[in-house]
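[job 4471] stage=fold_predict status=RUNNING
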Amino acid sequence: MPKPIGHSSRYNPAIDGIRTLAVLAVIFYHMKLAWMPGGLLGVAVFFTISGFLITGNLMRSWYRHGNLGLKTFWLRRLRRLMPAVILVVLVVWALTPFLAANKWADYRFGGLTAIFYVNNWASIVYGDSYFDQFEASPLEHMWSLSVEEQFYVFWPLVLFLFLVLARGRKATVVALTMVLAAASFGWMAYAHSLGYEATRIYEGTDTRAGSLLIGAVLAMLVTRRSAENGEETTSGRLFAEIAGLAGVAVVVGMMLRTDDNASYLYTYGLVLVGIASAGLLYGVSHQRTLVGRFLGSHQLPGWGSVATRFICGTCR
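[job 4471] inference complete, writing structure tokens
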């Protein structure tokens, strides 16, 4: 996550440290390393981070200006994400005639779905399995960025509706968001019980929104209306210490022990990863905690800041 250039943004290097660990987990998963079968959970960690950062930005705007600044918000997301996506797609298109000419039609279509951020739904509709790693398109992994961009488009509108209906009462907005997250996770579990194909459940925006919304709930809880309007506060270093250590233990433990075929992922596993990721985020938001100091060291954020753009995008 590059350091923010605006005075209203806050850079926490420990969040880049979390991203680095998530990036490495995803890479190890696709390398099929036996000792980390659950590295795909790194994407779930990214989703919770994104929900946290995006909602924090929106809530600060609400406290400062009485609105979410949607036009500016959406333009910033577009400017931040689109150039990297277009570059990746153009490189793939340029190399395809030389390296995989017989796949040109598929990759051309895949590039368009990536640019318009509907890659996940295209994979679902056309039956492309995310878990068939050796046959996947080089653009197949754009699905997670598509989920995030769809969230960036629709969540601010839903949040604005919640704020208006609740007349700005944060407790009500938090409760409504928790209900929405529970509905997403509940639909995931129900779809799994009905025997839906794994890619449909794993890549669906509706089924994966819960992880993003857990991060959104955390952002609402730690963002306060103050004299400076919208300052983030984390009271209680001891609680933050416990939450951070417990969060990293659960996330790493599940990455080391969870197989991508585990059915519990779609019932309670991804819920647990989301909650643990929120605990980890709360822990590092108090930067003097042990986990905050370790993940905020200069080495970890440096390794992950560039790679994150091509896995789940940046959100600040």
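[job 4471] summary: The mean pLDDT is 86.
[job 4471] exit 0
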